[in-house]
Structures are given as C-alpha cells and as structure tokens.
Amino acid sequence: MTALLDNAPLGVAVRIAGIDWSAMSEDEGRRLREFGLMEGVEVTPLHRGSIFSRDPLALAVGRMRVIIRARQAAMISVEAAA
Amino acid sequence: MTAAVPTIALVGNPNAGKSSLFNALTGARQKIANYPGVTVERKAGHARFADGRPMSLIDLPGTYSLIPASPDEAVTRDVILGKQDGERQPDALIVVLDAANLDNHLCFALELIALGLPTVVALNMLDLAERDGLTLDPARLAQELCVPVVPTVAVRRRGMTELLGAVDEALRTAKPVEPIAQVPMPGAAALHSRARAISRAATLSETPVRRWTARVDAVVLHPVVGFLILLALMFVMFQAVYAWAGPPADALEAGVGVLQSWVVDNIPENFLRDLIVEGLLAGVGAVVVFLPQILILFLFILLLEASGYMTRAAFLMDGLMAKVGLSGRGFIPLLSSFACAVPGIMATRAIPDEKDRLTTILIAPLMTCSARLPVYALIIAAFIPDRAVGNSPVGLQGLVLFGLYLAGIIGALVVAFVLRRTLARGSAAGFMMEMPRYQMPQWRDIALGLWQRAWIFLRRAGTIIAMTTVVLWLLLTFPKAPPGESQVDYSVAGRIASGLEVVVEPIGFNHDIALALIPAMAAREVAVSAMATANAIDAGGDEDAMAETLGQRLQGKWSLATALAFLAWFVFAPQCISTIAITRRETNSWRWPMFMVGYLFLLAYAAAGITYWTAVAFGLG
Asked: Which residues of A touch B435 (CB under 8 A)?
C-alpha cells in the first residue's frame, strides 16, 4: 500500500517506495539524493508550514533534518515503515 | 611539499562546523576578500604547526558534492581541483564532518578522499553527537577511510593541536599527486550505500535522535505559536536596537564634543581648523555615534545564525514568501539586508532559481539596512516623544522604528509579487534546505563577527563618509557669503540644493533635506553627516547654537509632517553606491541596477508625498 509523502501524517516514520525522478529537474533530483532521500530510506515528516500555508515540509532523514516543498513531496511515494 | 608555506583548505558540507573550526585554527588573523572575477567570499587566515612553521588556511564554501549547484559551490570545486584563477591548488585538505551526521557527510568526504590529495578528516562536533546519544569509533573510521581521523570540538578548541599535527604528518608522507583531470564520479546510490556502511561500522552505539532539538522544534516550528515567536523575536530585536544603545551612544557623542572643543582650543582659527571641526568631526562624528545600534543589530543576526534558528525562520517564512513567488531561502539574504544590503545581495547566491534570485536582489534594498538607522534614529529622537504607548512597556519611539521596518518589508513583498508576474516571471521557486541542530552560540565566534562588522563600519566612516563630508564642507563654505546672508544658502552646495528643492518641495522637503539628499547618494548615513556639517557652518561662532544637538536644531526648523515624509522617503530611496555596484556585479548588467534605482526613487517620492499630504491634512504641517 503506497501513498504520497505529501499526504503522510506528521510524526510517523515511512519508507520511500519510489521517487518520480523524471518529474523533477536535474538539480532538484541531485539535491534530494544529497539529502539522502532515495528509494528504501526511512523518513519521518515532522512539521508542515505555518498559518499561511501548508508549505514547506520538514523531514527527519536519519539524523538529518531537511526542508522540501510539498510539490517535491508529491513526487515521492511512501509505504508503511517495517 | 610544494612550497615554503603550505596551503590547507577546509572543506565540508554546510553545517559541519567549518567556520568555527576555521576561527579556532586562525583566531582573529583572518582576511576576507573576494575571489577574482566572482563575488564569492574568500576567507583566508594563518596558523602555525607545532614547531612554529606557518601555514595558510582557506575556508571554502560548504557544499554537498563536487558537482556545484550554485556559484559559491563552483568555487569550492575549482579551488580543490586547482582550476580557480589566482589560487594555487591546496597542498592538503581538512575534510570537516559533523560527527552526528556521518551518513550524509561521508558521501562528500569519500569524493574528496578519492582525489588523492593529502587529506585529514576532522570529526567535528563530537560533543554534540555524544549529547545525542551517539558513540563513535574514530580509529575504525580512519581505517575505513584510509586517512587520519582527528576528533575535534572546534567551539571548545579541542583537538586543534592533534589536527594540525595530522596535517603536518600527511604533508610529510604525501606522494606527489597527478593533476586531476576528471572528477571520479561513482553513482550517487553507490556512494550513499558505501557512506552508510562506513558510518554503521564506525558507530559503537546509538540511542534515538535529538530529543532536545525535537522538543524545541515542536514549539518553534508550531504553525501558529512558532510564527508568533518569530514576530516577537524581531520586535524585541528592533526595540533593543533603541533601548540598549542609549548610554554608549551618548558617551560617543560626548567624546566627539570633547575632541571638537580640544581642537578649537588648541589650533588657531584658520581654514584647517574649520575643516576639522565643522567638516570631519561634525560629519563623521554624527555617523560614528550609531556604531552601538549597528552592533546590537548585528549581534542579534549573528546569534540567530549561530544558534540554528535562522533556518527555522526561513521555514516559517517560506509559505508566506511562496505567495509572492519567492522562497524561504530568500529570507536569510533579506534578513541580512537588515544589517546591510551588500552582504544580503551576495548571500542570494545560495538561491538556485535565477528569477527567484533576481527578485530577491531587487527587493533587498527595501530591507531597512543599518545605514538607515542613523537617519531614522536622528529624526525619531527629535520628533517622536519618548514615552510609552498607553500603559504598556512598549516605547513609542521603538514602535515607530518597528513601523518603518514593517513598511519596508510590506513594500518588498508587494514589489516581489508584481515582479514575479511581470519582469521576473518564471517557474515556482523551490526550497530545499538542511535544518541544523540548535547550538549554543560561542561568544568567541560572535565577538569576532561583531569586530569584523565594527571594523567595516568604521572604515566606511573613515573613508567614503569622511571624503563626501569634506567635499560637501568645501561646497558649503565657498563662495563666502556677504555679511547678513546665510552661508549655507549662498554656497555652491546651497545653490544646487535650491535647484533640487523645486523638485522635492511638493513632498514637503525643505532646503536642509534637499542639501542632504545629494551627498547621501554615496551612502544613506551621509544625510546625517551632511546636515550636521551644514548646521555646524550655519551656527558659525554662535556658542549657544553650537551647544544644541542636531536633533534640537531640526526640531526648531522642521514640521512633523516634513520629518515623517523624510522617514518615508528613506524607507525606499536607493541611496547607496555600494548596493548599486554590487547589483551590477551580481546581475552582470547595468539593466537591473538601473531598473532598481528607478523604481525605488519613484516609490520613495510617492511614499514621502503621501505621508506628507496625509500628515498635513491631519494638521501636522
């Protein structure tokens, strides 16, 4: 059962099932990889936006915390973490 | 070894603690300049090996890999590969790793080690990793990486001697390296899994992550509470600029007064004495008095940056900035622009999207920079009563200052909104950023940063401001007015100002202001020194007039409506040669700086006009 990272509930760890690399620019894709966001990696969505917007999204990836936009999160499909 | 004084480069991911390490190794002996041809900041310094031999250290911009995503990351790659003009390839690398983030930082480290230069790894921020429940095995890491690994805690200067010792050893045993033609590029996935494997091998034990940071973030990044905290912080910052600067500013002002009387008492009355007293001391003194306020502002910005809060602020602002077509990335350059638009505009280089970056550059001058503070402070102190708002502890003067900052911000958002739909149209900006852990700011790093800012400000006061003031004094002093006529009105500068007065009279500006506006093109704070010089000349030998402060004299001559219009003008007016020059350099054409100057003057004129007419309508004229 897969869902999009953009819709994943906050505070629950999920595993990245797939990333639609073709939907993003080369730079975007590389930065995601540099952040360690790749297939099979576990991430936890932590915080989302402010009163003004649901953008951006803060994630925990291992010991690192990274910020991405909802648009990118919508290109990442996730499944329940084991 | 290739040269008498070896060059060692510090490289690493953003947030690895590179700058702290650089500060710890070099102390205050740093030189900040630009790489030739590009405007990326080059930080260099000196340190000594245990036996006293010198070495030169350079701090390279933080990056994630040797494939650059922005101009400053390109500099890092070119310097390491020896392709940067005017820069020798470093003799050795110190690769700085965040001990608590090995999974990710090892990727870049592996790329760097593969280059074959003598390399030492600094396993930095080991104390924070331990705080997070991580126990590492540096020896095992060294074994896996095949290079020496030195545990360091840069902020406490731990491991510095060992680090330099390891560098020394690496240089001694280095085999000559073939020049690297091509960056070896293993696949990203392969690199990552190798990094993770090494990280696992070097980790002895691990407990769940960063509880402390998580707890703070739950509040600070809360959709509502977090935003209120950000607003409160900014409000406190601008109140403090006013409240704390009083005593030291008074002391500086008194000091300038003492100097002036000393010169008057000890130098016979002649041209030179007038130049010193009325030109240099009155003009430069009027600006130097604002040093405390500028330092307080920078203190806040440096603390916010060093603590890790700045990225949280960017996170909170991103949604709002996205609505006008910018990104949270732009928040950091824009907040720096509150100190000075020049470093702010330079910091836009971290924004990957070109149109997003251009828009951020064009609105950066709308952030109230520290050069406006002297102007605001003078006018507010003279015209806004020093009392609390109602029964609250909030001061009216601080509130007006806050309002001026807010006006700049709102103006910037509106301009960005318009630009992103017209001249700088493009795809939606992206926002991808790493969020560092919270850290206790180190007073040593903060003090060094403050010292560098103070020095830059004083150097400006001593050069560009002193020069414009002296030129203005000459223009104000000649030709000599016949008895009975005002010297200021009769002088060359006075006549030019009279011409300009025709243009600015409709928006409530008087002769004083017209006179100040022209030299203030060089820098905004010159408006204050110009008025101080003009007033000093006007006062002539009249001792009572000399004793009055500039503020008191303006109070007698200006209406409140004029004062408010003058404040509104400076919210927008692009009066800073340095900003125009840096925009030319960063956008690589005259088109955008000219556009910036044009639209800002139009806005300034409109804002001052509307303020003046409204105030007059309310009977404040």
From this structure: 58, 65-67
